[in-house]
Structure formats: structure tokens, C-alpha cells
Model the fold of this input.
Amino acid sequence: MKTPNRQSFSCNLILLNFLLSSLPLIQSTAGSGGATSGGATSIAFATLGRSSYGFDIYALPTTTTTIASPEEIRLTDGNSVNYNGYFPSSSSLSVFPLLPDQPDPTTHFIYVTERNGSSQIYLDALYGTLPLKTGSRSMLESFPSKSNQLQIRLVGGEQENGRVSMKDRPSLVGRSLIYVSTHEDPGEPRASWAAVFSTELATGLTRRLTPSGVADFSPAVSPSGIWTAVASYGEKGWDGDVEELGTDIYVFLTRDGSNRVKVIEHGGWPSWVDDSTLYFHRRCEDGWWSIFRASFNNIGEGELGSDSVVTQRVTPPGLHAFTPAASNANKSFIAVATRRPDSDFRHVELYDVDSKNFVELTRPIAPNTHHFNPFMSPDSNLIGYHKCRGGGGGGESNDLLLEKVRSPLPNVSLFRVDGSFPSYSPDGERIAYVKFPGLYVMNSNGSDIRVVSTRTAFSTAWDWKRKGVVYTSVGPTFASESTKVDIVSINVDDEDLSHKKLTLGGENNAFPSPSPDGKRVVFRSGRTGHKNLYIMDALNGEKDGLYQLTEGPWSDTMPNWSPNGEWIAFASDRENPGSGGFELFKIHPNGTGLQKVIQSGSGGRVNHPWFSPDGKHIVLTSDYAGVSAEPISNPHHFQPYGDIFVIKSDGSWIRRLTHNSYEDGTPTWIPKSMKPGNVEWPNGGLKCSFDDCHWLNISPNQESSTSSIRQCGSKS
Ligand SMILES: *[C@@H]1O[C@H](CO)[C@@H](O)[C@H](O)[C@H]1NC(C)=O
Ligand SMILES: *[C@@H]1O[C@H](CO)[C@@H](O)[C@H](O)[C@H]1NC(C)=O
Ligand SMILES: *[C@@H]1O[C@H](CO)[C@@H](O)[C@H](O)[C@H]1NC(C)=O
Ligand SMILES: *[C@@H]1O[C@H](CO)[C@@H](O)[C@H](O)[C@H]1NC(C)=O
Ligand SMILES: *[C@@H]1O[C@H](CO)[C@@H](O)[C@H](O)[C@H]1NC(C)=O
Done:
């Protein structure tokens, strides 16, 4: 193997920000409770499931079946959340000034990592004698150890000068990284920001390959590097779907995005075998997710025979198969993720496309663990995937109670709280949050976690004047107007923690928000058969009288009282009742001045508003930026489009704060600014306890499956 010439690459080394030793680990800074000064503010929010992901990239030799008891190789370092890996071809090393003093590594791979609070793409190089070709047991056990692993950040983090984006699905072609990024605002509400970019690693020169006004997901580069395939809506845009996106597959020149052509109607997650064959997934009419192969006449660079595309269903009905990975070295098999009717877990399997046999790779090793998004080495000897590292993974914990998230706004720090509906006490020292079922209070440095109610509670809010008083509602969530839900106040400093019930009738009374003078509480109630807003006395509740603030046959909900007392912001579907769409309004507490603040496109969602301490901004959760990845490539998220945004209170300005493909929600503006830092769960948290996509739990009716093969196969 060739050692790159150090001299000629010295300039690149500086530009690349090489880190020639293992990068520092995330440090737990237990002091995040301290307030900072100087106009800065902080926002906290929740992300469904994220704290228990603990993903690392693992690999198994494809010869696994010949080993009596195969062991997985963990490739990534156990820090943070690492996923969506890719094995570059070895030729990428000879052009890439990887390591001036060392021979080429035994293997190298790139992946997405969320370490240090933002999405980044890393390249790791592993040294030592690897078992990658033989699958010999003893060699598997000897690897890896920290001293023979090098990490290089390719894009992301501090390199971006405060710019924040989600990165996804990286591929390396020569000296260029091809990947998804969400850093460009398409300027349209409810349009995805996901687009494919190419970054020349030596210079940082970044070029957008996706046309403007279009979103592209799941890019895959062909073995020659000439072509890139993506899943895309094209011009038609996102229709709000959160299961299968209904994308089409487009192919374009990797060089500059030109010669873009739609090759397959309805498909996602392309993976190339050679420059005229690719696999992809699609949910068939018979209900099963299945792998398809598409072949086209490839007449060399610049021309793709899109008229002559032949597609064929490859995997049979009877199991879900998706996220295919193929290799040029051995065209007789592919790797896929599956959900079999007899398993609640997602596994990686090989599928022999000639003999039509599956070989289960991961179920024999870890039957009760989800395995995601397989990828194959160019020589087809190794299958990579990611899964939760679980207990004893040997890395740093990802069980963060509070995680610092990189914020695109210099004067707003961002925290992810591992609990829903977080709210901070007016002095910023304590947090109330919900973990179903139950309401908890802790210090804002994560110490002294206490359960203050074991009943099903949702949104929380602290009284501005009476120390220790928290408002919440108890009863089922997402329920009908007549469901028994009442608002209670709890003094969390009282020993008996008694609930004071403030509403009487139990008619879905929820989302309390106290006035800044501590005298009144606004909430939503379904007592008329519709959800509208009401105001009651903060101490004695509705028995001292009730003022109906809004009235109409629609849903007004999630009110938040501004810190200067002048406004109440709330979400409402009043312009299209029952449609599922919610827009943001504000109204004076005396019922005058109703204004629409923001709407997310047509039929979109704006929810959970919360005013900034100075009342000039509102933080909210919305589908304003659509979805950022194919939902099937992630664990379950009910609303994978959820991201956190900040707007001016008059709606004249909006900024996206979070960039990921998860469900972010229930933001709160912290009354005091918090120093950024991570806080770990005292006892390790709930590792790996997340759900796979709920819609994969369903086994379609097997009777109709035979005829549907043809149906599905003929679709394109
Ligand atoms: C992560 O953040 C810490 C503290 O801010 C910093 O010292 C470290 O260099 C960062 N690491 C990376 C890889 O950016
Ligand atoms: C390709 O893979 C198949 C199935 O694992 C195997 O039987 C065959 O020997 C392989 N071919 C080559 C050329 O490695
Ligand atoms: C951030 O600071 C700028 C300049 O001081 C100010 O105009 C802006 O309103 C602040 N933004 C937020 C969200 O507080
Ligand atoms: C956390 O905050 C509490 C209350 O402010 C304080 O008593 C405690 O010492 C802090 N713990 C750490 C580890 O900073
Ligand atoms: C209603 O309240 C707003 C702001 O609190 C105030 O400006 C307005 O004069 C009030 N209107 C009436 C009719 O009281």
C-alpha cells in the first residue's frame, strides 16, 4: 500500500482540520444550571426517543454463516449517536491525504455523528490485522482498540461558523463528499430543506447538486462515481405523508447535478450494483415493503437510457424488506433490513437474488435489538449497519438528561431535555417535565430528580409568583372533548404534594398557562363540545368564575401567556376545523386584538408556542421544514417533521433552530439563560428503549399476495 506524499498535501492538512488522534469526548458538565448574563436566552425542548438511541456502527463479515458464533465488530467509538455509515472504495485512500506518516488503514468508513450537539460527518480509519476477509474468530475478538483508530471530521461542527444543518447519507467519491444537508432554506413553508451537496474536501468548496425548489433524500453514488441516484418528490413536493414518502428515483451526474432524469416512479433508498443497475425499496399495493431492481441502458457518461428502465420486484411478499445495499464485487446478493411477521425487531439479512434465499445476519446474534440501514463494503466482504450499543458498550454514555444542542442563533442556547413538556421555574433553578405516566421535578443541573405525580400529566407551567407551584393537567392525552382531564396545581415544595384541582367538570381541561401577575390561568377546555380557551382564578380555579376567551366550533389549544401580560399565543384549526392543520394566533387576555401570527403552508402545523422572556419572540414546533429523511430509515416518530422554530411575535421573521429527522416538540423558553453543557442521567437512563416504525408492525393480508407481485412489479 502506498503512503501519500506528505509534502504535497501539507496545505490540505491544514484546511482539513485534521485531528490525528482520537477527538475529545463529550464532557459532562454538571454545572449547566448556572445562569449567564448579557441578553442571551435559552430554549429547551424534547425529542421523542432520542436519548435512548445510543447508536454505533457495527459490521459483520458476509461469511458470518460459516462462523460458529460470530461476533460483531463495533466500528464507531461509543460516543454520542453514530449512524448511516458508508465504506468508501480503497481507491479513495490513494487520492485522499489521509495519514502522512502511516500506511493505508486496514479499513475506513464514514458516518454521521451527532457528537457536540450538531450533525457532522466523520471518517474513521482502523489499523491492525482485521478479520475482514476470513471471518476468523480470534481476530474478531482482538479488534478494535482505541489506539488503532483515527477520526477525521469531514464536514460539520466548528467548521461551519455557526451554520447548523442536518447531514445524512454520506458517500465519498475521489476527493469529494456527497451528502444530504439541510442548510439552505427553500423559502417555502412545508417544503423540505433536504438537498444533496458535494464538498471538495481539500478546499471546502461546496456545490448544491439538487435543483432549487426540490428536496432530495437518500443519495447513492454509482460504482464509477459518475452517477448519483436520489429519492425525490421532484417538483410536486411533500404531501404530509410520514410513513412512505412516495418519492420517485432520479439520477444525475455526480460532478455537477446535471442531466437529471427521473428513472423510477415511486421508490426510495437507491443502491447501485453497477452503473446501469440499482436496487430500491417501495411499499407495494399488497402492503409489503419490498426490494426492487431497476436496469437501464447506460450509454456512458452524460446519457442515461431512462426510456428503457426495466423494474422488477425482488423480495417476496410475506415480510417487509427495505433499505437495500448492494455491491459491485458480488452481484448475486444484497443486504436488506427486514421486519418479519414473527419478530418485533428490525434485522439485517442477506438476500441471494439468484437462489431467492435469505440469510439472517443479526437475528441469531441479537434477536431483540433493532438494526438499521445496512451498507456493504466495495469488496462485498463486510456488512455495516447501526444499532443501539446497549449496556456495556465500552463507550461514553449517551444517556443525557440534558443535552446541549448547537444553536444557529448566537444569543439563544439550546437544550434537549429527556422528558416531554419541560418548563423552568421563574428563577431558572428547577425543571418540571413529564415522562408518561408521571410528572417530575429536578434541579436544572439534573440533580434531585423527584416524581411529584404518578398520574398521566401533560403540559407543565410554573407560577410566576408563588414559589414551587406547578400547573399541569391530569388525564389522557390526545383525547376527545368530553374526556376526563382536569387542571391541577401542585406545590412541589410541600411534603404531601397534594393536587389542588382547579377545574371541575373534567371536560378535557388542559394546557394551563399562568398570567405573570400570578392571579389567573388560561387553559383550553372541551366543555362546549369544542376546544376553546378559558381564563380562571389561579388560586381557587373555576369555582370563582370562568371567562371564556375564545368561542367557536373548532379547536383552540396550547395557550401561552406572554411575560408582559399583554398577549396569549395559541394554536388553532379555526380556519379549517378538523383538518389536522394548526395555525398560530394571539389574542389579548380581554378578548380583543385577535391576530394570526403564522401559518405553515396549506394544512401544516404550528404548535406549542412559548414567549421569550422579553415577549418579542415566540418559540414553537412546526412542520414548516417538512421531513428531512425517509422516515423508514429511523426508529418510530409520530411526527418526523417536528422541528423547533423561533419567530418574531408579529410573525415577521422565522428561524429554524433544530435540524434533524426526529420528532422535536414541546419547546419552552427558559426565563434565565443557561450555560450550555450536557448532564448525564444519574443511573444510566433507559438505553435502547425505543420503538421501530409502528406501521411496520402490521402484516398485510397474505391471501392477496400472489396476484399482487405482478401488480407491484408492473407499476413503473
Ligand atoms: C466538543 O465540545 C468541547 C467543548 O465545547 C470542545 O472542547 C471539543 O473540542 C469539541 N469537540 C469536537 C470534536 O468538536
Ligand atoms: C458471491 O456470493 C455468493 C453468495 O454468497 C457466493 O456463493 C459466491 O461464491 C460469491 N461469488 C464470488 C465471486 O465471490
Ligand atoms: C438576539 O440579539 C439581537 C441583537 O441584540 C436581537 O436583536 C435579537 O432580538 C435577539 N434574538 C433573540 C431571539 O433573542
Ligand atoms: C445542582 O444544583 C443544586 C441546587 O442548585 C445544588 O445544591 C447542587 O450542588 C448542584 N450540583 C452540582 C453537581 O452542581
Ligand atoms: C384589551 O387589552 C389590551 C392589552 O392588554 C388593551 O390595549 C386594550 O385597550 C384592552 N381593550 C379593552 C376594550 O379593554
In short: Residues 30-31, 33, 429, 443, 445, 447 surround 2-acetamido-2-deoxy-beta-D-glucopyranose (ligand 4) (CB under 6 Å). The chain has two domains: 54-388, 400-685. The first strand starts at residue 35 and ends at 36.
